[in-house]
Amino acid sequence: YCDPLMASAGHKITARQRWTPTPVQLQILERIFDQGTGTPSKQNIKEITSELIQHGQISETNVYNWFQNRRARSKRKQLGSSSNNAESEQETEVESPNEKKNLLSQQNHAPSAEDLCFQNLEISPELHFLSVMSNPNAYDGDEHLSGKMGMPGNYNIYDQAED
Amino acid sequence: YCDPLMASAGHKITARQRWTPTPVQLQILERIFDQGTGTPSKQNIKEITSELIQHGQISETNVYNWFQNRRARSKRKQLGSSSNNAESEQETEVESPNEKKNLLSQQNHAPSAEDLCFQNLEISPELHFLSVMSNPNAYDGDEHLSGKMGMPGNYNIYDQAED
DNA sequence: TATGTATGAATGAATG
DNA sequence: CATTCATTCATACATA
């Protein structure tokens, strides 16, 4: 049969980056989702995949992702379309009519480049520890980090300096 | 105080609540992970953090989480060998036209900050052991950011088996 | 053709 | 340590 990937408007013959669920697959997936099987086990995933694969190319990864996305989407929609939440829920300038503000996203880096680039002369203080680190001593204690994994406390990177 | 994360351009960009490792940080982390150190101890975490913090905002928690995620992910792809093995007629699914392009390109101002750091990394004598991968193409451990989404059909779990 | 929207996919963080 | 959730990005896809 025709490649399910390029079955629609496709003109992409070189790259199948994103799995595109066929209507049939979508129908099945939605039905299963509707069953209440929110987070299917791996076994279920396999079974579902086995079913869907007959209707087009698909992998367990796709199925898994689909369910994850589906659930997340539903949830987000719920609390986003509600009347109004006077709770402590602060939305980061979220759902604007556009919503897709990621067009100019700057998620990563953007540190004090001019700064950290210059202090480069001292960038290898004790990194050699991993060269000789043969200490099988895992975690002497039980604490994973400095106290709890919530946050060290000293440097809170996620500082909602919103105001 | 000023958040190091958004202290760059000085715009009103919303601070990312999620830590995004800079290419440099990623390289270092990869190297350490590749050393076979596996799960670093608390002290190691601190050491690593001390090193990485010079290359951008980061906390011990981030480092810890990173290793945890990395470990889990590696394992996932490892245990993908049972009743699968359908066909692997996929071309080199690894090397994509572009690797971590998202890490280096999404804005238009291009501060070249990380770029400089990258260069500095190479020239660092002490960090030579972890600077061996100056060539992005020769990146040995970029399996996590490869672009082999999911069009396999023969893989098992929701993990992108990479081989 | 370019822009916008929808959704799959990647990853960091949280939880058990 | 294993699994799941939440957030964000990139790309498929629809429309102007």
UniProtKB/TrEMBL annotation, chains A, B:
<keyword id="KW-0238">DNA-binding</keyword>
<keyword id="KW-0371">Homeobox</keyword>
<feature type="DNA-binding region" description="Homeobox">
    <location>
        <begin position="14"/>
        <end position="78"/>
    </location>
</feature>
<dbReference type="GO" id="GO:0003677">
    <property type="term" value="F:DNA binding"/>
</dbReference>
<feature type="domain" description="Homeobox">
    <location>
        <begin position="12"/>
        <end position="77"/>
    </location>
</feature>
<protein>
    <submittedName>
        <fullName>WUSCHEL-related homeobox 13</fullName>
    </submittedName>
</protein>
<dbReference type="GO" id="GO:0003700">
    <property type="term" value="F:DNA-binding transcription factor activity"/>
</dbReference>
<feature type="region of interest" description="Disordered">
    <location>
        <begin position="75"/>
        <end position="108"/>
    </location>
</feature>
<keyword id="KW-0539">Nucleus</keyword>
<dbReference type="GO" id="GO:0005634">
    <property type="term" value="C:nucleus"/>
</dbReference>
